[in-house]
Design brief:
The protein has a domain of about 200 residues: Dihydrofolate Reductase, subunit A. By secondary structure, the protein is an alpha/beta fold. Strand 5, helix 4 and strand 6 form a beta-alpha-beta unit. The chain is built from 8 helices and 12 strands. Helix content is about 25%, strand content about 20%.
Length: about 300
């Protein structure tokens, strides 16, 4: 009698990663926020949320509506009490679990077509920028987005782990590498045979304005930028940021003299301010609108 072959479904590295991140998000203790100020009157903002997020965030989350000429781009940062944003372990900056799972890996990117990061932030082999908590995944899908945002990595040199990096080897993801003209050919050779990864030629020297125009032409209308400092400063200096989501912790830490931005003072307009609760008392979240620069 012929034996029946037992077919065991193959679980991919990416599927294992997603399950692990979902488990972490579900198990996280979210103390939530309490509203201290809400100043949305007269501002062109889009409310985002569902019952689950509104209970924990104490209301709607917002993003700028945008002009439609370039992507609506936000910066998402955590800083220590003394204003530092760089640490070998970002959790030591003291933002807390609510900031990480509800804002950083949640509301700030739940309505985004893509998440953008500099090469240093995206260099980990298992790095994927997405949404993990099922309630946030449900909200993202209800907003009409794909399960995972596109991944956008900015690297002038192309020094990225494209041979092993999870985001670069997973064909279900949409990935863009923004690099300068002199690195384009090298990157295309390294990524031959991976049609889900596209190289954006951002000129020489690298211009994020050129990059954003290229990403917009490819259908990316809302982008969440998550660091690092060099990419953040370039985005701000080129007038490409519409929203700043800033969490300030009650503890000192981080590498000294590492603010998220070094440049002329920004005339920010605050939309909301929230205070952490329970074990996260002292954490402060603020959303600012960054004044537009003419295109």
């Amino acid at each position: 009698m012929a034996r029946l072959a037992l077919i065991v479904p193959t679980v991919t590295r990416f599927e294992i990663h997603c399950r692990q991140r979902e488990k972490l998000a579900i198990s996280a203790l979210l103390s939530g926020f309490r509203t201290q100020a809400e100043e949305t009157s007269g501002k062109e903002v889009v409310p985002i949320g569902n019952d689950w997020t509104r209970r924990r965030f104490d209301g709607d989350f917002y993003r700028s509506r945008g002009s439609g000429r370039r992507p609506v781009t936000s910066l998402v940062f955590v800083q220590s009490r003394d204003g530092n944003t760089v640490a070998s372990d970002p959790t030591t900056l003291g933002g807390g679990e609510t900031d990480k799972h509800l804002i950083y890996e949640g509301l700030s990117r739940v309505d985004a077509d893509a998440v953008m990061a500099g090469a240093g932030t995206a260099r980990g082999e298992d790095t994927v920028f997405s949404i993990w908590h099922p309630e946030l995944v449900s909200l993202r899908l209800r907003l009409g987005h794909a399960r995972h945002p596109a991944q956008v990595v900015v690297s002038g040199t192309g020094n990225l782990p494209v041979e092993r990096g999870l985001m670069f080897t997973e064909p279900t993801l949409r990935v863009f590498i923004v690099t300068r003209s002199s690195s384009v050919a090298k990157m295309r050779n390294r990524l031959a045979g991976r049609p889900w990864v596209e190289i954006i030629d951002a000129g020489e020297p690298l211009s994020l304005t050129i990059a954003m125009d290229g990403l917009h032409r490819r259908g990316l209308e809302v982008i969440s930028a998550v660091g690092g400092r060099r990419t953040a400063t370039a985005l701000l200096r080129e007038g490409l940021v519409s929203d700043l989501y800033l969490t300030t912790s009650p503890v000192g830490g981080g590498e000294p003299h590492t603010p998220l931005y070094e440049g002329p003072r920004l005339a920010l307009s605050r939309v909301i301010a929230k205070a952490g609760q329970g074990t996260e008392a002292g954490v402060r979240f603020e959303h600012f609108i960054v004044p537009p620069v003419p295109v």
